[in-house]
Design brief:
Blueprint (H helix, E strand, L loop, with lengths): L2 E4 L3 H12 L6 E4 L12 H5 L14 H4 L3 E3 L4 E5 L4 E4 L4 E3 L2 E4 L3 E3 L12 E2 L4 H14 L3 E5 L3 H13 L2 E5 L12 H15 L2 E3 L4 E7 L2 E7 L4 E3 L3 E3 L3 E3 L2 H4 L5 E2 L5 E3 L2 E3 L4 E4 L6 E2 L4 H17 L11 E3 L7 E5 L4 E7 L2 E8 L2 E8 L5 H10 L7 H6 L5 H6 L9
Parallel strand pairs: 1-2, 1-7, 2-3, 7-20, 9-16, 10-11, 10-16, 11-12, 18-21
Antiparallel strand pairs: 4-5, 5-6, 8-17, 13-14, 14-15, 19-20, 21-22, 23-24, 24-27, 25-26, 26-27
Helix pairs in contact: 1-8
Length: 410
């Protein structure tokens, strides 16, 4: 049996590793539009912030050799022919398969793709992006940059470049940064604290409308309010789109069943996979590391043993790179809001039918894992959640279950 993966990212690497560790000895081919060993998108901003490049290869730079993989690199897959069971690449290669693992990930979305033809304008999604940005900073002695987009990836980019020592202006069209992973009040709190702790200039309710170049080199950006700023670097990070076109013909993702089968003989996982939410049952793309790992393991198990099922995705978001000020959220921000705030710490849980419907924790992570388990377990917490949120420890819920009203000794 010949197995081919479209993609060499975290899901594909986990899938291949699981196959080999479980005794699969047949041919495996991995196809990628990049020229690297499997790397972690979670780690690549650390490289840009100054860490060695080898740290991004989360399963080792020698992955292809150790797991006996034929790697087809720097050659994007442009079509999957499901009738003939083959994939076609941009360079004209036809790769046949018996089983296909489609984990092509997602790409940055650009409102003005032609901006990328200007030197100094970059996306912030792939290791290729990071290497190009790193080289450009060194070659042009870049001291300041504009980051367009204040979502998760944009804030990640701003923090990585700030940590490296650049003067950063972060531009976001919304009323707060991280607007997809916070509610209004939590996002406002996070925005103020991030600006205070880093000195990053945050411009809200603003977009980049135009760029100016000098000899093909970025010279300045113009904002939607008409003002301009001279800069040699612009990072565009305002959205992503799943790379589902070669298989599905559109960029709406690849639906997978509980065995992660998109159709007979084709599995999917990761940032391109459409799955069911473990709590709400709503289908969508839940692009997180834990979801991708579980999806890949489910697919590998089903391919080898014919059993196993994916229990559903969770839309968790965790931002804690480059600064000691983590921001964690999950679920939906609707229902009864219960809030606790002290100093740099802000915690809010939304309750529905007495259970956690969603939560936001800003400033520390001491109770985030515990609140996550309460959210996932669907236990009623309406009588205990205020004590849990206000506790500096992890044991509030256990104390309440035991009927202990006095805090335990520190």
């Amino acid at each position: 049996m010949k197995v081919v993966t479209v993609g060499t990212g975290m899901a594909a690497a986990e899938f291949v590793q699981r196959l080999r560790l479980d005794g699969f000895g047949d041919e495996i081919v991995m196809c990628s539009d990049e020229g690297f060993a499997p790397y972690s998108p979670c780690v690549i901003p650390f490289y840009l912030a100054g860490e060695p490049l080898d740290t991004v290869y989360w399963k080792g730079k020698d992955f292809y050799g150790r797991y006996r993989v034929e790697a087809r690199l720097s050659d994007p897959v442009v079509e999957v022919d499901t009738e003939q069971r083959l994939v076609r690449t941009a360079n004209g290669r036809n790769e046949t398969y018996d089983r296909l693992f489609y984990a092509a990930g997602a790409r940055s979305w650009y409102p003005r793709p032609e901006w990328l033809d200007t030197r100094g304008v970059f996306g912030f999604k792939t290791l290729s992006d990071m290497v190009a940005i790193d080289r450009y900073i060194g070659e042009h002695n870049v001291r300041k940059a504009v980051v367009f987009g204040g979502g998760f990836i944009g804030v990640d980019a701003a923090l990585a470049l700030w940590h490296r020592g650049l003067d950063i202006t972060l531009v976001h069209r919304n009323t707060r940064v991280l607007s997809q992973m916070t509610d209004e009040e939590g996002g406002q709190f996070a925005t103020r604290k991030l600006a205070q702790k880093t000195g990053i200039h945050i411009r809200l309710n603003t977009t980049v409308s135009e760029i100016s170049a000098n000899g093909g080199q970025l010279a300045a950006v113009q904002f939607s309010d008409g003002s301009t700023m001279e800069t040699a670097m612009l990072i565009v990070s305002i959205g992503v789109a799943p790379n589902s076109e070669p298989l599905r013909g559109d960029d709406k993702g690849v639906p997978g069943d509980p065995q992660m089968l998109a159709e007979s003989g084709i599995y999917t996982a990761g940032d391109v996979a459409v799955t069911r939410h473990a709590v709400t049952g709503a289908t969508g793309i839940y692009a997180t590391y834990p979801n991708a790992m579980q999806q890949a393991r489910t697919a590998a198990r089903h391919l080898l043993h014919g059993d196993g099922a994916f229990g559903g995705s969770i839309n968790t978001n965790v931002l804690k790179k480059h600064i000691d000020f983590p921001i964690v959220s999950a679920g939906a921000f609707s229902g009864e809001a219960v809030t606790w705030q002290q100093g740099d710490i802000w915690r809010r849980v939304y309750l529905k039918d007495g259970m956690i419907n969603g939560y936001i924790i800003i400033g520390d992570t001491r109770i985030s894992g515990y609140v996550y388990q309460l959210y996932l377990s669907r236990k009623r917490v309406d009588r205990t959640i205020r004590e849990i949120l206000s506790s500096p420890r992890h044991d509030s819920y256990y104390r309440s279950m035991l009927g202990l009203t006095m805090p335990l000794a520190a």
